[in-house]
Amino acid sequence: xxxxxxxxxxxxxxxxxxxxxxxxxxxxxxxxxxxxxxxxxxxxxxxxxxxxxxxxxxxxxxxxxxxxxxxxxxxxxxxxxxxxxxxxxxxxxx
Length: 94
Description:
The chain is an alpha+beta fold. It has helices spanning about 10-20, 30-40, 80-94; strands at about 5, 45-50, 55-60, 65, 70.
């Protein structure tokens, strides 16, 4: 089961370490660039992140929760499997 953590600089570093361990060959530049985009936004929206099936996952809270499409970090990543994990997470949290 995946879990999302509110995006902070510390969470970003932890997540990049986790990706390095669980997803060898991942595009770290792509992951870091996307994490920085959300980390440095100047809005009142809450962003949370996770990692599943070789994909970077984002949860957005702006009055209600929404999820961005999983960002594949390797050619053999499984966005469909990651979407399934997001669905399981949403049902559990509901």
